[in-house]
Amino acid sequence: MAEVLLKNIKKIYTDNESRKKGRGKFRQQPKEGEEEKKVSLQITDEGVVAVQEFNLDIKDKEFIVLVGPSGCGKSTTLRMIAGLEEITSGELYIDGNLVNNVEPKDRDIAMVFQSYALYPHMTVYDNMAYSLKIKHVDKAEIDRKVREAAEILDITQYLDRKPKALSGGQRQRVAIGRAIVRNPKVLLMDEPLSNLDAKLRNQMRSEIIKLRKKINTTFVYVTHDQIEAMTLGDRIVVMKDGYIQQIGTPQEVFDHPANLFVSGFIGTPQMNYFDAELVIREGSYYVETKGISVKLAEDKQLRLKENDVKAQPVTLGVRPEHLTIAEEGINGQVEVSELMGSSLHLHMTVDGKDVICIVPTEGRKVNYDGKQLKLAFTGDVAHVFSREDQHNLEY
Amino acid sequence: MDKKQKTKEKRSISYAKWGYIFIIPFFIVYAIFTLYPQILTVYNSFFEYYRDGLNIIGPNFVGFGNYAKLFTPNLSGFIPIVKYTVNTFILWVMGAVPQFIIAMLLALFFTSTRLNIKGQQFFKTVIYMPNLIMASAFSMLFFAMFSKVGPVNQIILASGWADQAIDFLAMKVTVRSLIALMNFLMWFGNTTILLMAGIQGIDESLFESARLDGSSSTQVFFNITMPLLMPIFIYVFITSMIGGIQMFDVPQVLTNGIGTPNNTSMTLIMYLNTFLGISKNYGMAGAVSVLLFIMTAILSTFVFKTISKK
Amino acid sequence: MKKDINTVAAIKLLISRLVVYGILIFLTFLCLFFFYLMFINASRSNAQLQAGFTMIPGGNTIKNFVNAWHDTNISIPVGMKNSFIVASLSAVLTSYFSALTAYGTYVYDFKYKKAVHLFILAIMMIPSQVSAVGFIQLAFKYHLTNKLWMLIIPSIAAPSVYFYMRQYLEATLPLEMVEAARIDGSNEFRIFNEIVLPIMKPAIAVQMIFSFVGSWNNYFMPSLLLNDLQKKTVPVMIATLRSADFTKFDMGKVYMLMVMAILPVMIIYVILSKSIIKGVTSGSVKG
After folding, report:
1. Alpha-carbon distances, residue A261 vs A69, A224, A389, C138, C207 (angstroms)
2. How confident is the model at residue C61 (pLDDT cuts 50, 70, 90)?
3. Are A96 and A30 part of one and the same domain?
């Protein structure tokens, strides 16, 4: 239960401090959805800049998700909050206290690691009790707390086992149990679900939502999976190349992505982009592309006006689920259609570019394959991004 | 008090200092008990410094005088360091050749799925055992066995293979053979196990596909096993050679430190040892040590190359 | 025709198996024969030994043992005690500090970390005899001969054990484990002792065995350093047997002394042979 305040945090890895050294060895394969190559990071005379200009005010009991592609600095940020990495510059406050130089053990935080990092030679019980033992907590008290945490996570029957004898999902629970047993001020989670298979991941995700209701603490959660970010976070922080791209509630980030990167990173399938013109007619903004013209919705009009946006060429973004098949619209040809159950994903080409459109199945009466269709969208789902710096012109 | 407070505030969460703290015992001990003596050894090699009766001669700086002495023929008419290097090499080769041939064969036997050898654990246990036996005691045992009145001669006499006891310890060939036999027995099991691990490290499917392609076992050996095993083989081979240079316990005890007959089984370390006895000839001993160091250094670079290739 | 090929192949296999087993049995015989003779001869009296060779044990084991045990020229009990002190303390120190050093260069980032690692690898192959001259000189200079700790303390810096431990750590210790312990509130020494050491138990055990055996068998340095009978280790005592006038000895006792020198290691080996053989292969730099 604590506020966490990050003020202009910066992290530079100097030469002798190898970045995430060794950790890679235990990640057998690159994580799903991540590119294996590290995104190019800024390299300065001082070293590699991993995180910079990071400002965030995490409120008490808030669930914050840091999300971004591999190498964006999200894990580094988490590790700085934990005290596992030095902060190069900036200030970190937990509960109002400056903690830049405080060792992890004195920060009253707990962390769940991607590899779980359970102590293999200790039983589940001892794993969970270890941090309390170090603090010289009374034995009966330790017992009470461990059993309570085990109860919450439904692992009471495994308390005497060694981690080796547990399944992946059970180990995950133990790792969480070890973290919550001491009622930390802040609970940090570093990609806790990425080692689980898809089914278990979904299950554990809802478990974490339930867990959150049971224990009162501040959560900081790191993931590369935007679905986890959307479903878990009160607010999500989208990062790229060491910079924060956007902070907001999942809905805000989804509805009003701050820039082209965020718009593409959040939401699957990815947003479609068209080259378009932003024009002003009779005091209102329109986007024009491929022979159609759409008037933007009122709230967008207001924001654009506020920013005094001029007419200009823009990148227009429309999410697949917001494209509809209409009488009039953008011409496209269906290449492949994928039946997803309740909906149909149409993979199309529009002027040589790939575009995805999601339409309801309707019992799959229509065979779209190879068809020419016209696509339309409304003014409240059109996102206009600057061609120059890719930011959302609404901001 | 004030100062303490300040440092406490200034402490950082960098763990670098712990790295130094954890490695420091190693380096202190290494510096005192190994590095400093090594430097002293090299230093000594440039001085005349020995004991003659109750007198201590030196230390007097002689430059490369000790080295020159090593390469000068002695009273018996041979150049000591050369002769003993050759001895050491011969003794090593005599043991190593059968050691590597047998070890290679055994490694192939044990890893062959076709032969499917039973009782592998037992055989491995037995052949590795001599490696752990106290070399000096093993050598003493051989001395007792092969002495003129020992059981081997008793067997020979009893069976009538010879009319009189053979003095195994007085003939060049037999002494060298005994040393080689002991080294062979002590090391072939170890080599077998290392080569086996090497062969097992090769992707099984390579053997299988080769066999399906119609290769004979010999072809598989020369075309697949050997080339892929080469780095490990070279590593084991050169480390064996480095071990060979350090050969001491076995010939020392067997010949009572004098390399009988006529210094033909005197090794480099035995020679070094003669300077460290009563004479305490630190100068000459230093020079021998430096040469020893150079030899192993050259061989070690090969080892490093094979390791780094891995 | 088909059947013929099959039978021929079966016969071929049978023959090669026979040959292979023949070789294996011969080597087994060779490895065990001398030790068998040693045990047999250790059970026979001097008179029996002089009389001639036989493969059958004599009834003199206990007498030979008592004679060997009480021999004042050799004092094997003292030697065994000294050897045991040196070997067991060396084993503990070398494995603990090598693990500590390996952990230090593996887990922590410090400026000269790579240089330190390479340095230790580079010194790994330097024969111990190279430092012997200076070591002996210093020992005599500062009157440190006949001190057992002079044989024990240097084992703290064992490059090859370090190398083994480092490889083991790389293969088994995820850094996240260390970080988890830090977050749990453990300090660095405690993390090493309570989390890392237990994880390294198999490696520690293997290195303790090898170190114990190596130290128990070590002859070169002790022979130069120890000349006081009360301080000698077993190999030094065994070697003195060789320089003594052999013909005067009770041979039964001599064989018994050899048995006593070799037997402890043999017992260890019989009990732990499986893990020892495994230890040879996993990252061995011995030999």
Report:
1. 11, 14, 11, 70, 54
2. confident
3. yes
